[in-house]
Amino acid sequence: MKLSRIAATVAAAVAAVPPLAQAQGQEAKKPKGDMTFFVTSVGKGNGADYGGLEGADAYCNELAKTAGSKHTNWHAYLSTTAPGGEAGVNARDRIGKGPWKNFNGVVVAKNVADLHSDKNKISKQTALTEKGEQVSGRGDAVNMHDILTGSDPQGMYSTAGGDTTCGNWAKSGDGSAIVGHHDRQGLKETRHMKSWNSAHGTRGCGEEALKSTGGAGLLYCFVPN
Question: How far apart are CA 122 and CA 195, in angstroms?
Answer without folding.
Answer: 10
